[in-house]
Amino acid sequence: MPLEPLKIKTMLLTAAREIADHVDILTDLDCALGDGDHGTTMKKLTQVMFDQIEPWNETTNLKDGLESLTDALEDVSGGSAGPLFAAFVYGMAEAAESDAPTTDDFIRQILLGAYDEFFTTSKAVIGDKTMMDAIAPATEVIRNSTTDMKTTLEEAARAARSGSDNTAGMLAKYGRARYIGDRCLGHKDPGSVTFAYFYEGLATGYFV
Amino acid sequence: MTMKKFINNPDNITAELLEGLALANPSILEVTDHNLIINKGLATADRVTIVTIGGAGHEPALEGFVGEGMIDISVVGDIFAAPGYKAVVEALKLADKGKGVLLVVLNHAGDMLAGDRTMKEVEKLGLNVIKVVTQEDIANAPRSDAANRRGLVGCVPLYKICGAAAAQGKSLTEVAALAQDFADNMATIAVACKTATHPQNGASFADLGEDEMEVGMGQHGEGGGGRQKMASADETAVIMADALLNDLDLKAGEEVMVIVNGTGATTIMEMLLVFRRVHKYLSEKGIKIVASWVEEVLTVQEQAGFQLFFARMDPEKLAFWEAPAKTPYLSR
Protein backbone atom coordinates (compact mmCIF):
# COMPACT_ATOMS: atom_id res chain seq x y z
CA MET A 1 0.00 0.00 0.00
CA PRO A 2 1.56 3.34 -1.00
CA LEU A 3 1.77 5.84 1.83
CA GLU A 4 1.98 9.56 1.62
CA PRO A 5 5.53 10.27 0.41
CA LEU A 6 6.66 12.02 3.55
CA LYS A 7 5.68 9.29 5.98
CA ILE A 8 9.34 8.37 6.42
CA LYS A 9 10.18 11.97 7.21
CA THR A 10 7.58 12.09 9.97
CA MET A 11 8.72 8.75 11.34
CA LEU A 12 12.39 9.69 11.50
CA LEU A 13 11.70 13.14 12.94
CA THR A 14 9.44 11.66 15.60
CA ALA A 15 12.09 9.07 16.43
CA ALA A 16 14.75 11.78 16.73
CA ARG A 17 12.41 13.90 18.88
CA GLU A 18 11.73 10.95 21.14
CA ILE A 19 15.49 10.51 21.72
CA ALA A 20 16.15 14.25 22.05
CA ASP A 21 13.41 14.58 24.68
CA HIS A 22 15.18 12.02 26.87
CA VAL A 23 18.86 13.02 26.70
CA ASP A 24 18.98 13.68 30.45
CA ILE A 25 17.94 10.11 31.15
CA LEU A 26 20.60 8.88 28.69
CA THR A 27 23.24 10.99 30.44
CA ASP A 28 22.30 9.61 33.86
CA LEU A 29 22.42 6.04 32.56
CA ASP A 30 25.84 6.61 30.99
CA CYS A 31 27.21 8.11 34.20
CA ALA A 32 26.47 4.82 35.94
CA LEU A 33 28.30 2.78 33.31
CA GLY A 34 30.55 4.87 31.11
CA ASP A 35 31.88 8.38 30.88
CA GLY A 36 28.60 10.25 30.91
CA ASP A 37 28.58 11.56 27.36
CA HIS A 38 25.92 9.46 25.66
CA GLY A 39 23.16 12.02 26.23
CA THR A 40 25.37 14.82 24.91
CA THR A 41 26.25 12.75 21.86
CA MET A 42 22.63 11.90 21.10
CA LYS A 43 21.69 15.56 21.48
CA LYS A 44 24.21 16.39 18.74
CA LEU A 45 23.18 13.50 16.50
CA THR A 46 19.46 14.20 16.75
CA GLN A 47 20.09 17.87 15.99
CA VAL A 48 21.77 16.74 12.77
CA MET A 49 18.71 14.63 12.01
CA PHE A 50 16.39 17.61 12.51
CA ASP A 51 18.56 19.86 10.34
CA GLN A 52 18.90 17.30 7.56
CA ILE A 53 15.40 15.84 7.50
CA GLU A 54 13.26 18.97 8.01
CA PRO A 55 13.89 20.20 4.43
CA TRP A 56 12.73 16.91 2.85
CA ASN A 57 9.72 17.43 0.60
CA GLU A 58 7.63 15.57 -1.98
CA THR A 59 10.45 15.72 -4.52
CA THR A 60 13.19 14.42 -2.22
CA ASN A 61 14.75 11.17 -3.33
CA LEU A 62 14.81 9.35 0.00
CA LYS A 63 17.91 7.32 -0.87
CA ASP A 64 19.82 10.55 -1.51
CA GLY A 65 18.32 12.11 1.59
CA LEU A 66 19.42 9.19 3.76
CA GLU A 67 22.90 9.26 2.21
CA SER A 68 23.28 12.97 2.97
CA LEU A 69 22.03 12.30 6.48
CA THR A 70 24.70 9.60 6.92
CA ASP A 71 27.33 12.00 5.66
CA ALA A 72 26.28 14.69 8.13
CA LEU A 73 26.10 12.23 11.03
CA GLU A 74 29.65 11.05 10.25
CA ASP A 75 30.87 14.63 10.68
CA VAL A 76 29.78 14.65 14.31
CA SER A 77 32.42 13.96 16.92
CA GLY A 78 30.35 11.41 18.74
CA GLY A 79 32.52 8.84 20.44
CA SER A 80 31.38 5.35 19.53
CA ALA A 81 27.66 6.15 19.41
CA GLY A 82 28.29 8.54 16.49
CA PRO A 83 29.75 6.07 13.99
CA LEU A 84 27.36 3.35 15.14
CA PHE A 85 24.30 5.54 14.67
CA ALA A 86 25.70 6.68 11.31
CA ALA A 87 26.16 3.02 10.30
CA PHE A 88 22.50 2.35 11.13
CA VAL A 89 21.35 5.23 8.92
CA TYR A 90 23.81 4.25 6.19
CA GLY A 91 22.22 0.79 6.20
CA MET A 92 18.84 2.43 5.58
CA ALA A 93 20.30 4.42 2.70
CA GLU A 94 21.95 1.35 1.17
CA ALA A 95 18.73 -0.67 1.35
CA ALA A 96 16.55 2.11 -0.08
CA GLU A 97 15.73 1.79 -3.75
CA SER A 98 16.30 5.02 -5.58
CA ASP A 99 13.10 6.94 -6.25
CA ALA A 100 11.06 4.12 -4.78
CA PRO A 101 7.55 4.98 -3.62
CA THR A 102 7.24 5.00 0.15
CA THR A 103 5.34 1.84 0.82
CA ASP A 104 5.22 -0.40 3.84
CA ASP A 105 7.67 -2.64 2.00
CA PHE A 106 10.04 0.29 1.62
CA ILE A 107 9.92 0.91 5.38
CA ARG A 108 10.52 -2.76 6.07
CA GLN A 109 13.44 -2.86 3.62
CA ILE A 110 15.30 0.11 5.03
CA LEU A 111 14.87 -1.01 8.63
CA LEU A 112 16.23 -4.47 7.79
CA GLY A 113 19.12 -2.85 5.92
CA ALA A 114 19.85 -0.68 8.95
CA TYR A 115 20.26 -3.79 11.08
CA ASP A 116 22.64 -5.42 8.57
CA GLU A 117 24.98 -2.45 8.42
CA PHE A 118 24.82 -1.92 12.17
CA PHE A 119 25.83 -5.55 12.71
CA THR A 120 28.71 -5.28 10.22
CA THR A 121 30.12 -2.23 11.98
CA SER A 122 29.45 -3.14 15.62
CA LYS A 123 29.87 -6.93 15.46
CA ALA A 124 27.67 -6.96 18.56
CA VAL A 125 25.07 -9.64 19.23
CA ILE A 126 22.16 -9.94 21.65
CA GLY A 127 23.46 -10.26 25.20
CA ASP A 128 26.48 -7.99 24.78
CA LYS A 129 24.70 -5.11 26.59
CA THR A 130 24.77 -2.73 23.63
CA MET A 131 22.44 -0.94 21.23
CA MET A 132 22.06 -4.33 19.56
CA ASP A 133 19.93 -5.58 22.45
CA ALA A 134 17.22 -3.19 21.29
CA ILE A 135 17.90 -3.30 17.55
CA ALA A 136 17.99 -7.08 17.08
CA PRO A 137 14.64 -7.93 18.72
CA ALA A 138 12.93 -5.05 16.90
CA THR A 139 14.44 -6.23 13.62
CA GLU A 140 13.26 -9.79 14.21
CA VAL A 141 9.70 -8.52 14.64
CA ILE A 142 9.95 -6.50 11.44
CA ARG A 143 11.52 -9.38 9.52
CA ASN A 144 8.96 -11.99 10.55
CA SER A 145 5.80 -9.95 10.84
CA THR A 146 2.81 -10.97 8.76
CA THR A 147 0.53 -8.28 10.08
CA ASP A 148 0.01 -4.61 9.10
CA MET A 149 2.84 -2.09 9.44
CA LYS A 150 1.26 -0.11 12.27
CA THR A 151 0.98 -3.21 14.45
CA THR A 152 4.42 -4.38 13.31
CA LEU A 153 6.10 -1.13 14.34
CA GLU A 154 4.30 -1.11 17.67
CA GLU A 155 5.44 -4.68 18.35
CA ALA A 156 8.96 -3.81 17.22
CA ALA A 157 8.99 -0.88 19.64
CA ARG A 158 7.84 -3.12 22.48
CA ALA A 159 10.53 -5.68 21.56
CA ALA A 160 13.19 -2.96 21.53
CA ARG A 161 12.08 -1.65 24.91
CA SER A 162 11.97 -5.09 26.46
CA GLY A 163 15.36 -5.95 24.94
CA SER A 164 16.77 -2.75 26.37
CA ASP A 165 15.26 -3.48 29.81
CA ASN A 166 16.97 -6.87 29.72
CA THR A 167 20.39 -5.22 29.44
CA ALA A 168 20.21 -4.38 33.16
CA GLY A 169 20.93 -8.03 33.87
CA MET A 170 23.82 -8.31 31.42
CA LEU A 171 27.58 -8.02 31.72
CA ALA A 172 28.96 -5.66 29.08
CA LYS A 173 31.19 -6.99 26.30
CA TYR A 174 31.83 -3.71 24.50
CA GLY A 175 32.47 -0.09 25.32
CA ARG A 176 33.48 1.39 28.60
CA ALA A 177 30.97 -0.53 30.69
CA ARG A 178 32.96 -3.71 30.14
CA TYR A 179 35.68 -2.32 32.40
CA ILE A 180 33.53 -2.19 35.51
CA GLY A 181 32.69 -5.89 35.62
CA ASP A 182 29.66 -6.91 37.63
CA ARG A 183 29.10 -3.38 38.88
CA CYS A 184 27.31 -2.76 35.56
CA LEU A 185 24.58 -5.18 36.65
CA GLY A 186 21.32 -3.40 37.46
CA HIS A 187 22.03 -0.61 34.98
CA LYS A 188 20.52 -0.53 31.50
CA ASP A 189 22.81 0.08 28.54
CA PRO A 190 22.23 3.70 27.48
CA GLY A 191 22.66 2.93 23.76
CA SER A 192 19.94 0.30 23.93
CA VAL A 193 17.66 2.80 25.65
CA THR A 194 18.32 5.25 22.81
CA PHE A 195 17.17 2.68 20.29
CA ALA A 196 14.10 1.81 22.36
CA TYR A 197 13.12 5.49 22.05
CA PHE A 198 14.01 5.36 18.36
CA TYR A 199 11.67 2.47 17.54
CA GLU A 200 8.94 3.93 19.74
CA GLY A 201 9.28 7.17 17.78
CA LEU A 202 9.05 5.33 14.47
CA ALA A 203 5.82 3.66 15.58
CA THR A 204 4.33 6.93 16.80
CA GLY A 205 5.46 8.73 13.66
CA TYR A 206 3.86 6.12 11.44
CA PHE A 207 0.54 6.58 13.15
CA VAL A 208 0.56 10.40 13.07
CA MET B 1 23.48 19.27 38.44
CA THR B 2 25.70 22.14 39.40
CA MET B 3 29.35 22.35 38.65
CA LYS B 4 32.02 24.82 39.62
CA LYS B 5 34.12 25.23 36.49
CA PHE B 6 35.25 28.33 34.65
CA ILE B 7 33.51 27.66 31.38
CA ASN B 8 31.19 29.43 28.97
CA ASN B 9 28.55 27.73 26.85
CA PRO B 10 29.27 24.00 27.43
CA ASP B 11 28.73 23.26 23.73
CA ASN B 12 31.67 25.49 22.81
CA ILE B 13 34.27 24.17 25.25
CA THR B 14 36.29 22.21 22.71
CA ALA B 15 36.43 24.96 20.10
CA GLU B 16 37.29 27.56 22.74
CA LEU B 17 40.04 25.53 24.40
CA LEU B 18 41.65 24.81 21.02
CA GLU B 19 41.49 28.48 20.11
CA GLY B 20 43.11 29.27 23.45
CA LEU B 21 45.85 26.71 22.84
CA ALA B 22 46.61 28.19 19.42
CA LEU B 23 46.59 31.77 20.70
CA ALA B 24 48.91 30.83 23.56
CA ASN B 25 51.38 29.06 21.27
CA PRO B 26 51.32 31.01 18.01
CA SER B 27 54.84 30.03 16.95
CA ILE B 28 54.27 26.30 17.52
CA LEU B 29 50.85 25.33 16.24
CA GLU B 30 47.61 26.42 14.63
CA VAL B 31 43.99 25.29 14.76
CA THR B 32 41.99 24.72 11.59
CA ASP B 33 38.54 23.51 10.61
CA HIS B 34 37.40 20.14 11.94
CA ASN B 35 39.42 20.80 15.11
CA LEU B 36 42.79 19.85 13.65
CA ILE B 37 45.73 21.12 15.69
CA ILE B 38 48.65 21.39 13.29
CA ASN B 39 52.39 21.70 13.94
CA LYS B 40 53.54 24.85 12.15
CA GLY B 41 56.71 22.99 11.18
CA LEU B 42 54.63 20.58 9.09
CA ALA B 43 54.58 23.02 6.20
CA THR B 44 58.28 22.46 5.49
CA ALA B 45 58.59 18.91 6.82
CA ASP B 46 60.37 16.39 4.60
CA ARG B 47 60.03 13.30 6.75
CA VAL B 48 57.61 10.77 8.18
CA THR B 49 54.85 12.60 10.05
CA ILE B 50 52.82 11.70 13.14
CA VAL B 51 49.03 12.03 13.41
CA THR B 52 46.89 11.09 16.39
CA ILE B 53 43.20 11.22 17.30
CA GLY B 54 41.23 11.53 20.51
CA GLY B 55 38.63 13.45 22.44
CA ALA B 56 39.25 16.72 24.26
CA GLY B 57 38.97 17.16 27.99
CA HIS B 58 42.31 15.48 28.79
CA GLU B 59 44.55 18.54 28.52
CA PRO B 60 47.40 18.99 28.07
CA ALA B 61 47.13 15.69 26.12
CA LEU B 62 46.77 15.05 23.36
CA GLU B 63 46.83 18.30 21.39
CA GLY B 64 49.20 20.01 23.84
CA PHE B 65 51.98 17.81 22.48
CA VAL B 66 51.70 19.04 18.89
CA GLY B 67 54.93 20.59 17.65
CA GLU B 68 58.35 19.79 16.29
CA GLY B 69 59.64 16.45 17.52
CA MET B 70 56.27 15.05 18.59
CA ILE B 71 52.80 15.20 16.97
CA ASP B 72 52.27 16.86 13.57
CA ILE B 73 48.47 16.84 13.62
CA SER B 74 46.16 16.04 16.50
CA VAL B 75 42.58 15.41 15.37
CA VAL B 76 40.55 16.49 18.37
CA GLY B 77 37.08 15.18 19.11
CA ASP B 78 34.57 16.79 21.42
CA ILE B 79 34.90 16.29 25.19
CA PHE B 80 35.83 12.60 25.78
CA ALA B 81 34.48 11.75 22.31
CA ALA B 82 36.34 10.45 19.28
CA PRO B 83 36.45 12.69 16.21
CA GLY B 84 34.56 11.74 13.07
CA TYR B 85 36.65 9.73 10.59
CA LYS B 86 36.44 12.35 7.85
CA ALA B 87 38.48 14.78 9.90
CA VAL B 88 41.08 12.06 10.40
CA VAL B 89 41.28 11.38 6.66
CA GLU B 90 41.69 15.09 6.03
CA ALA B 91 44.50 15.23 8.59
CA LEU B 92 46.29 12.29 6.99
CA LYS B 93 46.10 13.94 3.56
CA LEU B 94 47.52 17.16 5.00
CA ALA B 95 50.22 15.33 6.93
CA ASP B 96 51.54 13.16 4.11
CA LYS B 97 54.75 14.77 2.92
CA GLY B 98 55.65 11.89 0.63
CA LYS B 99 57.36 9.82 3.32
CA GLY B 100 54.22 8.40 4.89
CA VAL B 101 52.27 8.96 8.09
CA LEU B 102 52.17 7.14 11.41
CA LEU B 103 48.61 7.18 12.80
CA VAL B 104 48.49 6.61 16.56
CA VAL B 105 45.13 5.50 17.98
CA LEU B 106 44.40 4.86 21.67
CA ASN B 107 42.29 1.79 22.31
CA HIS B 108 38.89 3.23 23.17
CA ALA B 109 35.70 2.14 21.42
CA GLY B 110 34.97 5.37 19.55
CA ASP B 111 38.58 6.02 18.56
CA MET B 112 38.95 2.47 17.26
CA LEU B 113 35.77 2.78 15.16
CA ALA B 114 37.06 6.06 13.73
CA GLY B 115 40.49 4.49 13.15
CA ASP B 116 39.09 1.46 11.34
CA ARG B 117 36.80 3.58 9.19
CA THR B 118 39.73 5.89 8.41
CA MET B 119 41.94 3.02 7.29
CA LYS B 120 39.26 1.90 4.81
CA GLU B 121 39.43 5.35 3.21
CA VAL B 122 43.24 5.30 3.36
CA GLU B 123 43.22 2.15 1.25
CA LYS B 124 40.78 3.67 -1.24
CA LEU B 125 42.88 6.82 -1.52
CA GLY B 126 46.17 4.94 -1.64
CA LEU B 127 47.71 6.95 1.21
CA ASN B 128 50.88 5.65 2.85
CA VAL B 129 49.73 5.27 6.45
CA ILE B 130 50.56 2.77 9.17
CA LYS B 131 48.25 2.66 12.18
CA VAL B 132 49.58 1.78 15.62
CA VAL B 133 47.23 1.21 18.56
CA THR B 134 48.26 1.92 22.14
CA GLN B 135 46.63 -0.41 24.64
CA GLU B 136 48.77 -0.56 27.72
CA ASP B 137 46.31 -0.40 30.63
CA ILE B 138 46.92 -3.58 32.57
CA ALA B 139 43.82 -3.28 34.76
CA ASN B 140 41.27 -5.23 32.80
CA ALA B 141 42.90 -7.85 30.69
CA PRO B 142 46.10 -9.87 30.48
CA ARG B 143 48.81 -9.00 27.96
CA SER B 144 47.55 -11.80 25.68
CA ASP B 145 44.15 -10.03 25.39
CA ALA B 146 45.44 -6.64 24.24
CA ALA B 147 42.18 -5.78 22.47
CA ASN B 148 40.62 -5.32 25.90
CA ARG B 149 43.36 -3.05 27.21
CA ARG B 150 42.77 0.69 27.12
CA GLY B 151 45.19 3.27 25.89
CA LEU B 152 46.25 5.58 28.72
CA VAL B 153 49.24 7.94 29.14
CA GLY B 154 51.61 5.69 27.16
CA CYS B 155 50.71 7.35 23.88
CA VAL B 156 52.55 10.52 24.95
CA PRO B 157 56.09 9.10 25.36
CA LEU B 158 55.37 7.13 22.19
CA TYR B 159 54.72 10.38 20.28
CA LYS B 160 57.98 11.74 21.67
CA ILE B 161 60.09 8.74 20.70
CA CYS B 162 58.51 8.32 17.25
CA GLY B 163 58.59 12.06 16.60
CA ALA B 164 62.32 12.11 17.27
CA ALA B 165 62.88 9.06 15.07
CA ALA B 166 60.94 10.73 12.26
CA ALA B 167 62.92 13.95 12.71
CA GLN B 168 66.12 11.96 12.33
CA GLY B 169 64.99 10.68 8.95
CA LYS B 170 63.83 7.16 9.81
CA SER B 171 61.48 5.56 7.27
CA LEU B 172 57.80 4.94 7.98
CA THR B 173 58.47 1.22 8.35
CA GLU B 174 61.21 1.95 10.88
CA VAL B 175 59.14 4.49 12.82
CA ALA B 176 56.14 2.16 12.93
CA ALA B 177 58.31 -0.77 14.08
CA LEU B 178 59.77 1.43 16.81
CA ALA B 179 56.26 2.54 17.85
CA GLN B 180 55.07 -1.04 18.03
CA ASP B 181 58.15 -2.14 19.96
CA PHE B 182 57.74 0.69 22.47
CA ALA B 183 53.99 -0.04 22.75
CA ASP B 184 54.67 -3.74 23.33
CA ASN B 185 57.03 -2.89 26.18
CA MET B 186 54.97 -0.37 28.10
CA ALA B 187 52.33 -0.70 30.80
CA THR B 188 50.12 1.66 32.80
CA ILE B 189 47.92 1.33 35.83
CA ALA B 190 45.68 4.08 37.16
CA VAL B 191 44.27 4.91 40.56
CA ALA B 192 41.55 7.38 41.51
CA CYS B 193 40.27 8.52 44.86
CA LYS B 194 37.81 11.19 43.69
CA THR B 195 35.99 11.04 40.38
CA ALA B 196 35.58 13.75 37.77
CA THR B 197 32.71 15.77 36.37
CA HIS B 198 31.77 15.80 32.70
CA PRO B 199 32.25 19.49 31.85
CA GLN B 200 29.36 19.59 29.36
CA ASN B 201 26.62 18.20 31.54
CA GLY B 202 27.92 18.36 35.10
CA ALA B 203 27.53 14.65 35.58
CA SER B 204 29.79 12.76 37.97
CA PHE B 205 30.96 9.40 36.74
CA ALA B 206 31.08 7.21 39.76
CA ASP B 207 30.46 7.14 43.45
CA LEU B 208 33.69 6.39 45.24
CA GLY B 209 33.23 6.33 48.99
CA GLU B 210 35.01 8.85 51.21
CA ASP B 211 37.52 6.26 52.40
CA GLU B 212 37.90 4.42 49.07
CA MET B 213 40.24 4.44 46.13
CA GLU B 214 39.92 2.52 42.91
CA VAL B 215 42.91 0.96 41.20
CA GLY B 216 42.27 0.54 37.51
CA MET B 217 40.32 3.75 36.95
CA GLY B 218 40.04 4.48 33.25
CA GLN B 219 40.84 7.46 31.14
CA HIS B 220 37.42 9.05 31.50
CA GLY B 221 36.62 8.34 35.09
CA GLU B 222 34.85 5.13 34.11
CA GLY B 223 35.57 2.54 36.72
CA GLY B 224 37.66 -0.48 36.06
CA GLY B 225 39.47 -2.24 38.77
CA GLY B 226 39.43 -2.98 42.40
CA ARG B 227 37.95 -0.67 44.95
CA GLN B 228 39.87 -0.71 48.18
CA LYS B 229 40.46 1.32 51.30
CA MET B 230 42.39 4.51 50.74
CA ALA B 231 46.10 3.80 51.23
CA SER B 232 49.22 5.92 51.77
CA ALA B 233 51.45 7.17 48.93
CA ASP B 234 54.06 4.52 49.74
CA GLU B 235 51.55 1.68 49.94
CA THR B 236 49.77 2.73 46.76
CA ALA B 237 53.08 3.11 44.91
CA VAL B 238 54.07 -0.44 45.77
CA ILE B 239 50.68 -1.96 44.90
CA MET B 240 50.83 -0.32 41.49
CA ALA B 241 54.54 -0.89 40.82
CA ASP B 242 54.15 -4.59 41.62
CA ALA B 243 51.32 -4.88 39.12
CA LEU B 244 53.40 -3.23 36.39
CA LEU B 245 56.58 -5.20 37.16
CA ASN B 246 54.58 -8.38 36.96
CA ASP B 247 52.89 -7.44 33.70
CA LEU B 248 56.12 -6.39 31.99
CA ASP B 249 58.11 -9.19 33.60
CA LEU B 250 60.89 -6.72 34.40
CA LYS B 251 64.09 -8.20 35.76
CA ALA B 252 67.09 -6.89 37.67
CA GLY B 253 69.48 -5.14 35.33
CA GLU B 254 66.81 -3.78 33.02
CA GLU B 255 66.32 -0.07 32.34
CA VAL B 256 62.94 1.66 32.44
CA MET B 257 61.12 4.92 31.93
CA VAL B 258 58.74 5.85 34.76
CA ILE B 259 55.94 8.39 34.45
CA VAL B 260 53.68 9.53 37.27
CA ASN B 261 50.83 11.21 35.41
CA GLY B 262 48.45 13.28 37.52
CA THR B 263 44.85 13.02 36.37
CA GLY B 264 43.78 16.54 37.37
CA ALA B 265 43.24 17.00 41.08
CA THR B 266 46.26 15.31 42.58
CA THR B 267 49.04 17.64 43.63
CA ILE B 268 52.59 17.49 42.33
CA MET B 269 53.47 17.07 46.00
CA GLU B 270 51.57 13.77 46.18
CA MET B 271 52.96 12.65 42.84
CA LEU B 272 56.52 13.28 44.02
CA LEU B 273 55.87 11.20 47.14
CA VAL B 274 54.69 8.37 44.90
CA PHE B 275 57.65 8.71 42.54
CA ARG B 276 60.07 8.66 45.46
CA ARG B 277 58.73 5.34 46.68
CA VAL B 278 58.64 3.85 43.17
CA HIS B 279 62.26 4.89 42.63
CA LYS B 280 63.44 3.27 45.85
CA TYR B 281 61.36 0.17 45.19
CA LEU B 282 62.77 -0.37 41.71
CA SER B 283 66.30 0.33 42.93
CA GLU B 284 65.89 -2.38 45.56
CA LYS B 285 65.00 -4.74 42.75
CA GLY B 286 68.00 -3.73 40.65
CA ILE B 287 65.92 -2.01 38.00
CA LYS B 288 67.34 1.28 36.78
CA ILE B 289 65.15 4.30 36.02
CA VAL B 290 66.82 5.99 33.04
CA ALA B 291 63.97 8.38 32.20
CA SER B 292 61.38 9.92 34.49
CA TRP B 293 58.51 12.38 34.23
CA VAL B 294 56.29 13.53 37.09
CA GLU B 295 53.66 15.80 35.62
CA GLU B 296 50.04 16.29 34.61
CA VAL B 297 50.25 14.83 31.11
CA LEU B 298 46.91 13.25 30.34
CA THR B 299 44.22 14.38 32.76
CA VAL B 300 40.58 13.52 33.43
CA GLN B 301 39.18 16.88 34.46
CA GLU B 302 39.36 17.17 38.26
CA GLN B 303 39.73 13.45 38.91
CA ALA B 304 42.04 12.91 41.87
CA GLY B 305 44.51 10.15 41.22
CA PHE B 306 47.33 9.30 38.90
CA GLN B 307 48.54 6.84 36.32
CA LEU B 308 51.81 5.00 36.91
CA PHE B 309 53.60 4.13 33.68
CA PHE B 310 56.64 1.90 33.10
CA ALA B 311 58.34 1.25 29.78
CA ARG B 312 61.29 -1.00 29.08
CA MET B 313 64.03 1.16 27.55
CA ASP B 314 67.10 0.67 25.39
CA PRO B 315 69.79 3.20 24.38
CA GLU B 316 68.09 4.03 21.05
CA LYS B 317 64.71 4.77 22.63
CA LEU B 318 66.37 6.74 25.40
CA ALA B 319 68.19 8.90 22.85
CA PHE B 320 64.91 9.59 21.04
CA TRP B 321 63.22 10.40 24.37
CA GLU B 322 65.97 12.90 25.19
CA ALA B 323 66.10 14.42 21.68
CA PRO B 324 64.88 17.99 21.12
CA ALA B 325 61.19 18.80 20.90
CA LYS B 326 59.20 21.98 20.89
CA THR B 327 55.57 21.62 21.92
CA PRO B 328 53.43 23.64 24.34
CA TYR B 329 53.75 21.11 27.17
CA LEU B 330 57.03 19.31 26.43
CA SER B 331 60.12 21.09 25.21
CA ARG B 332 63.79 20.32 25.36
From TrEMBL, chain A:
GO biological process entries: glycerol catabolic process
Pathway(s): Polyol metabolism; glycerol degradation
Positions of the DhaL domain: 6-204
Record flagged with keyword Transferase: yes
Alphabetized UniProt keyword annotations: Glycerol metabolism, Kinase, Transferase
Keyword Transmembrane appears in the UniProt entry: no
Cellular component terms (Gene Ontology): cytosol
EC number(s) given by UniProt: 2.7.1.121
Record-linked InterPro entries: DhaL_dom, DhaL_dom_sf, Dihydroxyacetone_Kinase
Function: ADP-binding subunit of the dihydroxyacetone kinase, which is responsible for the phosphoenolpyruvate (PEP)-dependent phosphorylation of dihydroxyacetone. DhaL-ADP is converted to DhaL-ATP via a phosphoryl group transfer from DhaM and transmits it to dihydroxyacetone binds to DhaK.
Subunit structure: Homodimer. The dihydroxyacetone kinase complex is composed of a homodimer of DhaM, a homodimer of DhaK and the subunit DhaL.
Protein's UniProt name: phosphoenolpyruvate--glycerone phosphotransferase
Organism whose genome encodes this protein: Acetobacterium wieringae
Automatic annotation (TrEMBL), chain B:
Gene3D superfamilies: Dihydroxyacetone kinase, domain 1, Dihydroxyacetone kinase, domain 2
Record EC number: 2.7.-.-
Single biological process term from Gene Ontology: glycerol catabolic process
KW RNA-binding (keyword) present: no
PROSITE patterns: DHAK
GO cellular component, as recorded: cytosol
Top EC class of this enzyme: transferase
Keywords: Kinase, Transferase
GO molecular function, one term: glycerone kinase activity
Boundaries of every DhaK domain copy: 9-330
SUPFAM superfamilies: DAK1/DegV-like (SSF82549)
Protein's UniProt keywords contain Iron: no
Record protein name field: PTS-dependent dihydroxyacetone kinase, dihydroxyacetone-binding subunit DhaK
Species for this entry: Acetobacterium wieringae
Protein encoded by which gene: dhaK_3
